[in-house]
TrEMBL record:
Name this polypeptide is given: RNA polymerase sigma factor, sigma-70 family
GO terms, biological process: DNA-templated transcription initiation
Origin: domain of life: Bacteria
GO molecular function: DNA binding; sigma factor activity
Coiled coil: none
Matches recorded under InterPro entries: RNA_pol_sigma-70_dom (IPR014284), RNA_pol_sigma70_r4_t2 (IPR013249), RNA_pol_sigma_r3/r4-like (IPR013324), WH-like_DNA-bd_sf (IPR036388)
């Protein structure tokens, strides 16, 4: 997800943004987002939508609210993604507290390491029994492509993509049982 740059609004864009500003409050209300917390997040998507809508004539075939809602939704999704990143949820300890053992600071770390190693072994086994086309599909899905986009890139149908992923999940379940 790349963030597009917002430039200073010109007079026409400013007036357009003022006229349609109620879209922002409707969006926040519809998604039950606290205005105090999320207004500053979604407003950037809204302002970017204003600029894009007025600068790109091909967007006029859509309602402005559609473009604005999509951009605001992207901003909210990006915010939730950033909040859930490991660096934001890292374990924190006060410098005043004494931590005598690593186990006290990071409980169950050995269990987590063992689970991660098991997952790595399982993934290696799964990759070894995949066709090159399946590997390509898994890489595309990991990169965030939708089934439709994967189907286009791999020259197969969306149903073909879905059924291949279904078969791969079945293989993974069988491998877990062994």
């Amino acid at each position: 997800m790349t963030m597009r740059k917002i430039c200073k609004l010109n007079e026409e864009q400013r007036q357009f943004a003022d006229t349609h500003h109620s879209i922002v409050t409707r969006f926040l209300s519809h998604h039950q987002l606290d205005e105090a917390e999320f207004y500053d997040i979604v407003i950037f998507g809204y302002l970017l939508a204003v600029q894009e809508y007025l600068e790109k004539p091909e967007l006029s075939r859509y309602a402005f609210s559609t473009i604005a809602w999509r951009n605001m939704k992207d901003c909210v999704a990006r915010e939730y993604y950033n909040r859930s990143r490991d660096k934001r949820t890292a374990a924190i300890a006060s410098l005043n507290e004494e931590v005598l053992e690593l186990e006290a600071f990071l409980p169950d770390r050995l269990a987590h390491l063992a689970e991660a190693l098991d997952n790595q072994i399982l993934l290696t086994e799964l990759l070894s029994c995949m066709t090159p086309k399946e590997k390509e599909m898994v890489h595309l899905k990991a990169d965030g492509y939708t089934y439709r986009e994967i189907a286009e890139k791999c020259s197969i149908t969306v149903y073909g993509v879905s059924s291949r992923f279904s078969r791969m999940r079945c293989r993974l379940r069988k491998m877990e049982l062994i």
